[in-house]
Amino acid sequence: MPRLLASALSLRRDPRLLKLPPYLSLLCIVVGVVWLFLLPLDDYSRRTYISENALLPGQVHTYFGGSDQNVFRAYKHETDELAGKGNIEVNDKLESIAKGLGLKVGRQNFTYSSAGNTHSGQNIYAILQAPRGDATEAIVLVAAWKNVKGELNRSGVPLVLTLARYFKRWSLWSKDIIFLFTPDSIAGPQAWVDAYHDAHDSSRVASLPLKSGALQGAIALDYTRETRFQSVHIVYDGVNGQLPNLDLINSVNHVAGGQMGMGVAIQEMWKHSNSYHDRLQTMLRGMLKQGLGLASGPHSSFIPYHVDAVTLQPFGEGWQDEMAIGRVIEGTFRSLNNLLEHLHQSFFFYLLMQRERFVSIGTYLPSAMLVAANFTIMAIALWVKSGQPDVQEIITEKTKTAEEAERIVSPNPHVASERDLFLPLVLVAVCQFLGVVPLYLFNHLSESALIPAFVLFSVLSSILPFLLSNLLHTSTTSTTAQQYHLIRSFSLLLLGMFLSSLATLNFSLAFFVGVFSAPLTFVRPCPNSSTLRWLSMVVLYVLSPTTVVLVASMLPGLDEKVGCGLGEVLRQAAFAWDVTGTYTPVVVWCVWWPAWIVGVVSVLGRPGAGDKKVKKA
Amino acid sequence: MCPSLPSSFLLSLLSLLCFSPYTALAIASSPADSISNSRSDYHEQLILRPLPLSTLLASFNFRSNTSLSAFEAHNFRFFPRSLGQILEHAGTRELHLRFSLGRWDAESWGARPWNGAREGGTGVEMWAWLEADTDEEADRKWLTLTNALSGLFCASLNFIDSTRTTRPVMSFQPEGNHIDANATNMHLLYGVLPHEVVCTENLTPFLKLLPCKGKAGIASLLDGHKLFDSSWQTMAIDIRPVCPEDGECVLQIEQSIDMVLDIDRSKRPRDNPIPRPPPAHEMKCNTSKPYHAHDTCFPTDSAANQDWSLSQIFGKPIKGTCPLTDPTVSPVCIQVPDSRIVFASEGAVEKKNPDQTSRCFDFPAENDFEIFLPAPEAQDGSVVIEHVAKPETPLLYAERSFTGHGQERGGVQTILRNPSPDQEVEFIYMESLPWFMRIYLHTISARVDGQPGKADSLIQEVYYRPAVDRARGTQLEVRMTVPPASTVFLTYDFEKSILRYTEYPPDANRGFDVAAAVITILNKDKSGGNGRNSRFAAYSLRTTTLLCNLPTPDFSMPYNVIIFTSTAIALAFGGMFNILVRRFVAANEGPESGLKKGVNKLKAKLAGILKKGRKESAPAVAAEEEKKAW
């Protein structure tokens, strides 16, 4: 042991050790990325299983059907008549139907404003009180009048009404059932859930006139098609990449896939062959959605309040009819009704790669953590380096003989030279605080001003590093190499810290930002080689936050031929920030962008150039 | 009621009035008057009251008296001996016990039966006046009482410990006549178990206390399947001393069961309880819809009244009357407008009451009794409503819920709505909270809906007894008013404590039940009547219970830790132990084994034979030297 310590201590003095960190960082990044690509393999992913024994999914007979279909057709006629009518008119009709069923009905108005637009509407909800229960617990069935794409939920709304009538006949419910009809898929549910938990801004969102107990789960139905369908698509992404308990997804999977014999799809993978390629694609799509942190359906708003929720979307051409999806919901509700405790047994952090395969946080987290760690390693290395006198310089300038050089080199690593902290700290702090400017700008401008503002900001953010760099040069005391080391060290330290803590909250976002900013570890001032400098500049500008946002908006989406466009991306980001509280913009503008600015500034830097000239002269 | 009226007049008045549960409260709240009625020692009555939305309220009431002298002489006749001995042993002067399930839907069903005097919050609730010289003695007696009753009623009443016991100051007043009601040796203790699930095992001992058990009379209708399938039910036992002004004091026990049955659900046969979709041709459709077709049906109101009979709803008819009951009190009454036809079984005598909304039936003791109520022949919905007696508007609506989210702190909000257009409601709001909900009393505030800012004048008096961790719960009593035709929000914040690992119940993630708040509305008439009682309880109601989520640890984690540390300790200890106790010797110095040993022995023997007197203990010495070197 003492020998080991001694050798480790002697290694510490070894100047070769300081050459190691860049390679170590590179290794971290490579291992982190390769790790991710290993996950879909059978050895690293696991089969899903039901953890909560009380759920017993697919164990009950479902009786929805028969003459209920006649009722469904009647409600469908009613819904069709309402197509294109105003929110209030729709709610009046829904209220009269729900009251006819003997349910308690409440309404709630909400008004959100985002990017100069006003999103307002009125939610209506009906409470089926548990026949023998008291109002301690409740489960929610949501049907948005329009889905996230703006299509009319033509079959979903009448099906939920029919189910409400059917559920009313059962006496076994142990929890209240709330049927929620919202005018849209994001703002409406958000307003309702906020108000249910009294976390709403009462100037914009009205309080709920009726309440029930603690919400235990929610199922949203997005059923726009009018023809028969093949299987059901589970949408499970919540706001900010939060996910519902895996048990809920597994339950739906058991009921729909096992009991009802209809397939289940996730992440818009309509055909899944369970090959490595398909698994990887499913996982990456899931990560992309998680990383963006946008609401993906009416269920998304429930998840931040620890209410597990999914949206069901029937899809494909097949022979399943609306009664089949009704029975899936019935079966799932019977399972949720069985719950004695809040869903807590199974995983909350997972990546699904097929409907029955997942990796849990313990397996995938090292990937993002390694990517984040590479910045920290480099930051520490730069800090150590900044404490040592510039060995290279001394050797090149003063060495006459090799012995003399060795004599100079050997004692130096012990004696840390004094660090000039002021300038680096100020620069990094200013860059960090500048991040608030785009964050404020893009969330408060009106929609028409968003694109010009973005273009202007892109140009400014491209020029800003040059300005800063010039400022550093023209200042009275020229910036030294040590200061550049410190600048990079602080910036990378912050980046590594932010990303590693973010990885535990939103793995995908941390991973993507980490990969995009990986070059920041390796770029350095290159006063001698202008080609290297220009190469670094090109890489950095290609991977700049603004370029990435721009390119991402041009890329075609999953089911569209063309990208949704820059304006739409910015509008959605502002909407997500204002309504659902998505924090992705904070990460982009206050974590990634400042680090990028500092990175470009350090590439442009010409450390100690002035000093050298003075000495030579 | 006014006690100065002649008792003969009262008797006739009571015989007219007591058919309504609402007027029956008058009897309950002023027992002194009703004593003339209770001379007959035992009576029972079932009041049926159809409610809107095809539900039926059934109120069973059983009352018996025993004179105090007979009670003290252990001469039990109608009074159950088992209960009597417990009461005597625990020095109980007055006892109230409630078992409840479900919630009363005041919006559709109106005011509560007995004006809320015979109901409790979800779970089990009990309060009693005990005779004790000191608080400690009262606590001891209370412990005896709860434990004894726990055995008698098969309920977890023994879990009413000091953390769940409070001593209400304003909310409860004795119902009986106590000679020294304000004496210092009368202690009121109140305990509540919100998580207790009331079920059949509580009904059986309840029925056993009755003189006819469940064998005859209206009690024969009671069975667990129907009672616990009801939308709301409450079983109450009230024991109190009653002293008429002109006679001997008696001890009165009143047992009542109130239940609201869903007629649709109750009529479903027991062997086929699954609500399968009915065949399409049996469905009642709205044929006026343009799209109406053989495969499309807009269902008509499910709230439409249905026909029902006692045996359909309860599964059996009433098996005669209890022979011990007072014959002057009709055993069954039904509250429907006189315009509605009610068929009763043969031999029954129908007596219509002058108020035109109720009628009673007398029937022979040995016959089964049955009521059939045909569906009203109205076509459109507006007429149907009139076939059900119009529900009385309650004095106050109350709804309580949690605000906020997260596991650190939260808030409670109670919405109190006064429906009366011109009368203010004054009441006492009582909460008994578990100790792990630490309330911030300074945040308590009341505001009138629609009027911004606090309206602290609404809260008139606050009695607060803070919780002591693991020893005592919070007790909060607030006397406040709600102005006419307005809604008041009463809110306060609280902090959630972190429990110890072993304090969590097995289903920790379910959350913790918080008992219902008790709201006692004070009588407006402050001066009239016989002093104290008149100020009291015009109406009382309870909110629903709440489920409070506390920060809950991951209980599998300790097991992981145990497994992990056990492995580490096993490895470390194993290695350490090995090093400590094992003697290390060089391989060639140690004792040999196996074949080599045998061979060596043989060699040694041979050598010994060859060279006698040579030493043989060399290996042991070598081992000793090795140990010193270590």
Automatic annotation (TrEMBL), chain A:
UniProt entry keywords in alphabetical sequence: Membrane, Transmembrane, Transmembrane helix
Signal sequence extent: none
GO biological process, one term: attachment of GPI anchor to protein
Coiled-coil ranges per UniProt: none
Protein name (database record): Glycosylphosphatidylinositol:protein transamidase, GAA1 component
Species assigned in the record: Neurospora tetrasperma (strain FGSC 2508 / ATCC MYA-4615 / P0657)
Regions crossing the membrane: 20-41, 361-384, 421-442, 449-472, 492-522, 534-555, 586-605
Entry annotated with the keyword Transmembrane: yes
A GO cellular component entry from the record: GPI-anchor transamidase complex
Alphabetized InterPro entries for the sequence: Gaa1 (IPR007246)
Keyword Isomerase: no
Any Pfam family matching the protein: Gaa1
TrEMBL record, chain B:
Chain segments annotated as transmembrane: 557-581
Signal peptide: 1-26
Protein's UniProt keywords contain GTP-binding: no
Any one annotated GO CC term: GPI-anchor transamidase complex
Record keywords: Membrane, Signal, Transmembrane, Transmembrane helix
Record keyword S-adenosyl-L-methionine present: no
GO biological process, one term: attachment of GPI anchor to protein
Protein name: Gpi16 subunit, GPI transamidase component
Protein source organism: Neurospora tetrasperma (strain FGSC 2508 / ATCC MYA-4615 / P0657)
